[in-house]
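Dear colleagues,

For the upcoming journal club I promised to circulate an example of a predicted protein-ligand complex. I picked one with S-adenosylmethionine because it came up in last month's discussion. The inputs are reproduced below in full, followed by the predicted structure.
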Amino acid sequence: MGTFYLVATPIGNLSDFSFRAVEVLKSVAVIACEDTRTSSRLLHHYDITTPTLSYHQHNEHRKVELLMEQLDGGRDIALISDAGTPGISDPGFLAAREAHKRGHTVCAIPGASAAITALAVSGLPSDRFLFEGFLPSKKGRSARLDAVVEQECTVILYESVHRIGRLIGELRERSGDDRMIAVCRELTKQFEEVIRGSLADVTKKVEDHQNIKGEFVVIIAGKNYKE
Ligand code: SAM
């Protein structure tokens, strides 16, 4: 029996990595990486020379078996994604499920996740929240947005730079000018920024930005929240 480690990695700042994460990645037989080239920077920085293999959403079904062979053979293995916590809008769930089914130990090494980092920094209610991850870009998007704006708890969305302006417009169309949101950009990186306020304010601030770049988490306050 082996141990399957799901190891969280930094979401930008390489110093946000735990001692235990480094120890585990040095000790396992192989590290499955979402992108071996992306992860090589982190692994090199921490002098981790463990062999890697690629494991991403397009080969996940096929590679689960390969990972299980390692565990069945009594070897410990780790999974990391490009950034943050594996399994959270990233590959991880299928392998964790299969490892459990086969009776292996599944062990999470906790660390950063953009969702929780953004929620904490947003200054919006964090006692109850719904993680929606990425909305579909086309089919089903409108229905999901309708459901998001009806939530009474805080909602967390991931969005790409290509659609961030569109998303803010779609939310404003559905819930009006006053709904509070926080657009959290480039967390833990050099140009980290929290653009917070009513949808009307945030629309203006984002428009004034001209060519806004980076990675984004959008936090939307529940429908009855006022401040
Ligand atoms: N597993 C990751 C986690 O735990 O945060 C999420 C992976 S998902 C493929 C990538 C998305 O997370 C990005 O498109 C962005 O929405 C968000 N994200 C990741 N890093 C971020 C950062 N430093 N600042 C803001 N958002 C970030």
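Two points we might discuss: The chain has two domains: 3-109, 114-220. Residues 22 and 46 are 7 Å apart (CA to CA).

See you all on Thursday,
B. R.
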